[in-house]
Amino acid sequence: MVFYFSGTGNSEWAARELAASLGDELRFMPDELCGSMEYTMQDGECLGFVFPCYAWGVPLLVENFIRRLSVRNVSYVYYLCTCGDDTGMTKEIFCRSVESKGWQCNLGFDFQMPESYISLPGFDVDSKEKEGMKLRAAAERMKQAVDAVRQRKCGFFDILPGAFPWLKSRVVRPFFNRFLMSPKPFRYTDKCIACGKCVAACPLHNISSADDKRPVWHDNCAGCLRCYHVCPAHAIQYGWFTRGKGQYLNPLVN
Fold it and tell me: pLDDT tens digits, residue range 113-152?
């Protein structure tokens, strides 16, 4: 069984490739949060988690999902994390989360994928050339990850912590989660064509339509930025930080 969360499609691509190669069931975390969240694994079945790296750590939505999750007969746990550059101490954060459930994380892989975070100065999407290079490299890396899971490797972590992982994950990440995850800076410009694509695309159904069909953001936001990237008129902005920046959706799933 593979649980995944994705905003712009990088982690969705990874999850779908993984589940298809392993013949495993695929479940989208936001959808599962609406149910009982009680599952029973078959003998020998792997429990996998696929998610993007947010602020050099596990997304808060994924941590909350794991806290609420109830799974019986767990024998092997692994994760795949997608990132634009590096992941800091994501491995340690994820392992601690599953250890709180009485499980042990056996394997972890980080995948460098095209950049989609654009909400701070200095961050923008990759060039088309770099995007293509990352996608081709990820396809080759997926073969390695699938083989490692099939072999049930234990204590195997092929990760990308980068420089100063402790500073990024223990100092920057808490600040980011507290002050830079608010949906309040989202706004639409006069380019908005009231098409409703941002409303339909939000994985947490956090956007509704006003009387004039323009988007209204509420408080249940994961910070995935899918609404920004999916807008055909490029009319959605996150404060002033995203002005003039590019858009990205994984071309293999969108």
Answer: 999 999 988 999 999 999 999 999 999 999 999 999 999 9
Torsion of CA 36, 154, 137, 252, to 10 degrees: -20
Whether the Cβ atoms of residue 14 and residue 82 lie closer than 8 Å to each other? yes
Average pLDDT over residues 235-248: 94
| % of the chain residues with pLDDT over 90 | 94
Question: Which domains are seen in the chain, by residue range?
Answer: 2-178 (3.40.50), 186-238 (3.30.70.20)
Is 22 buried (19+), middle (13-18) or exposed (0-12) by CB count in 10 A? middle
Residue 162 token pair: 């980068």
Is it the case that residue 104 has pLDDT exceeding 80?
yes
- pLDDT surpasses 80 at 244: yes
Rounded to whole angstroms, how far apart are CA atoms 112 and 160? 8
φ, ψ of residue 117 to 5 degrees: the values are -85, 125
CB proximity list for 19: less than 8 A, separation 6 or greater: 2, 25, 26
> Given this model, what pLDDT does residue 254 score?
65
